[in-house]
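ok so i was messing around last nite and threw this chain in just to see what happens. nothing serious, just curious
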Amino acid sequence: MATSVQNLIKERKYPFIWGLSLTIFLISAIVFLLFANTSPSPLSVFTDLQQRPVRSSEPPTNDLVERQDTGNANGRDGDKQSDVTDVPGVNDVDLELELEWRLCKGSMSVDYIPCLDNMKAIKELKSRRHMEHRERHCPKPSPRCLVPLPEGYKVPVPWPKSRDMIWYSNVPHPKLVEYKKDQNWVRKSGDYFVFPGGGTQFKDGVKNYIDFIEKTLPNIEWGKHARVILDVGCGVASFGGYLLDKNVITMSFAPKDEHEAQIQFALERGIPATLSVIGTQRLTFPDNAYDLIHCARCRVHWDGDGGKPLWELNRIMRPGGYFVWSATPVYRSDERDRNVWKSMETLTKSICWKVVTKTIDSSGIGLVIYQKPVSPSCYEKRKDNIPPLCLEKDEQNSSWYCFRTRHLYIQFILLRLLFFFAVEQGGDPLPV
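result:
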């Protein structure tokens, strides 16, 4: 390009050069004006964030507050308040965008989640057999109200102190304290909830349980081989909270159930968590995302519906990854638990998972660790094509209608290349 410009100058084609420069300038000006007209004003967005919701006791509503000449931003009669307060220099500006939102009202608004508490959609479900009522069903049109904070909400306790204690007023749910008092999940102490590190399977505390897993299978090596994990049915997420000490990032999830939205405790503690359920929809995680998946009495029927819940775990677990299952069928021998164990044996063999280890600790709690294969050869040797392997056209629905293995071929080839590269360089092969 530089050579072309020099030639133009040598040939004294100045009109062409000036015309090209003017054209570039005009195009830049037009793009700038279009962007300025379509982009929201940073000031207007900032003022929207400054509007503070006020708690109300009326039923939830999705309506917007009608515009009032008095500038009432919270929609309560007789309460005259400026749209923007305590913001230097903002009240003097003539704002073009002033949205006034109505609060979602009612005592249940603290826990109200429009896509999960959409009772109209839930009542219209034809079946609840696969946990459809625990899945998201977002209302249409989308809600146009703000969910109020609990009365007396305070700035959360900062991390890492928040892992062990949070303000009671921020998550005012005493029911879980009573319901799980024998398992030491959470206790109320004055103005705080405190989390001693107990749990259904953590008889000797969550720290000992985490060490027990690593001693059972040293190759897990928290923070080195297992760095990104998923905790299914997490409770108040103490497992994920204490794994942070091991340089492990844990995504915890559980449904919104009768235990008063345990995920709220996890989020207030500063632990990554989300409300979700393994039902009929794929989890919102990509393929091969997790090094390890953990379930401690998570009450998921892995063998249900032909094993589709476990197929979904297979989709999001990387080849060579581990599934740690700590549940009564692993270490109890009553008839029900024996039947579940036999079903899991059949199911895991059908998807080529192998049992790496199975053990019971001193407190009587047991676990089994499965490993997902890195090679597709096992699937090719199966006598029965159950579960059926996915075709390319079925892949977007994989784990609910078929079993996806195509990524194993790619992973297998990459691992073989890394193996040969390490050997050629005189080093050790990378661990699976």
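not much to say yet. The chain has 13 helices and twelve strands.
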